[in-house]
C-alpha cells in the first residue's frame, strides 16, 4: 500500500485483529485480493472512459464453473 501510515492510522486495530484471528496465509490472501479488486475496478473504469465496450456473450475466455 502506498499510504501505509494512513492505513495504519485508520485500520490499525482491524489489521491487528485480522492477524490474531486468521492464518497468515489468509491475511496475505485478503490483502492481495483487495488490491487486485481495486486495480481491476480502476482498469475497467479507465477502459470505459476510453470507449471500450463489453465483449459479446461467448466471445471471452471460457468461464470456470462456480467462478465469476
From TrEMBL:
Annotated keywords: Disulfide bond, Mitochondrion
Region (Disordered) residue spans: 48-68
Compartment list: Mitochondrion
Alphabetized InterPro entries for the sequence: COA6_fun, COX6B-like
Protein name stated in the entry: Uncharacterized protein
UniProt organism field: Lepraria finkii
